[in-house]
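How a chain folds remains the central question behind the approach discussed here. The record that follows shows the chain in one-letter code together with its fold in token form:
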Amino acid sequence: MRIAVLTTESTASAEAAATVVREAPAEVVLVGVSDPYRDRTRTQRLLAGTRYRLLPWLAAEYVAPRLLRQRGAGPVAAAARARGVTPQPIPNVNGAATQAMLAAARPDLIVTCHFDQILAPETIAIAPRGGINLHPSLLPRHRGPMPCFWAALDGDALVGATVHRLAPRIDAGAVLAQRRLEASPDTTVSALARALHMAGARAMLETIAAIAEGRERGMVLPPLPYRGFPDADALARAARLGIRLSDMRDWRAGRALGGVAL
């Protein structure tokens, strides 16, 4: 089976995405990387809407990995090279250029890990076996871009990661596999995201093997409400509860990655 892996450069998911690329029981024919800051206006609106309370978290997740960027650096790039693939930038996953690149690569399955663009049905359909995604929550709980924050704010004692089918509705496709972990009150949102992505990577590898062997078993669950980025009030409430988005350990973890050079 041939797979295309799509991801976003981040502290939360780089090691997990690299693990999937490096150990996937399939031929990796494409590794695509999205730029989280390709829409600067959207980023500025997000920051303003949170009264800049989200800035330290964004820095730890997306700025820190770029500080030591060197051409060919970073775990995803290294894993891709080991599989004989050069990572490709994905400015618009549903654009004609990316669709042509996917068609030329001829993947049987599209695999996404912390990819920040929504694949249109026609993009997913390029792969005969569709697509699967790793999401760091126990779906259907906490659909959306910051599930670890909402799990912490809700006081979830049990957290986890889900591998699910890509579908037109965000984080609402059939659940294929889940891994559960006990939440620690001392961890940051960033550290929790790293742990859940790594747990999900193992589930992703098993799911890829199951699909290749025709053993896929999915369960469609009624989706719960979508939860987007928190607003300033939610972030203030989290701070009063002692919830930390990130700390210097997360910053150092990001810097250690060295970025995913394209």
User: Anything to note?
Assistant: The mean pLDDT is 93. Residues 2-254 form a domain with the Rossmann fold fold (CATH 3.40.50.170). The beta strands are 2-8, 27-34, 88-89, 109-113, 131-135, 158-165, 175-182. The CA atoms of residues 40 and 225 lie 27 Å apart.
